[in-house]
Write the structure tokens for this entry.
Amino acid sequence: MYYDIISPVKWKQFYCLGDVEMIFKDYYKILGLQNNKASQEEIKIAFREQAKKYHPDVSNNSRTEERFKDINEAYKVLTRRSYEKKIWQNVE
């Protein structure tokens, strides 16, 4: 058998994503919520308020579309997280 020996430097270049940085997004803050123990109903109300405020058809600001995408992402993540908590509580 033939094994190709890769130096540690090349190994890092191929298999590590050293140049990629993770950006932390506080989804509760994006929706305007104060704490991370908001109920599903509070998340839904905050999402609707922010969506109305930053919808691209309503606001003429240049960053509106980007902000609106962040709001949608926050809502999807937080509702999914809440759904998963309910499932795991029923399993235990």
Observations:
- Residues 64-91 form the longest helix (28 residues).
- The chain has four helices and no strands.
- Helices lie at 8-15, 27-30, 40-54, 64-91.
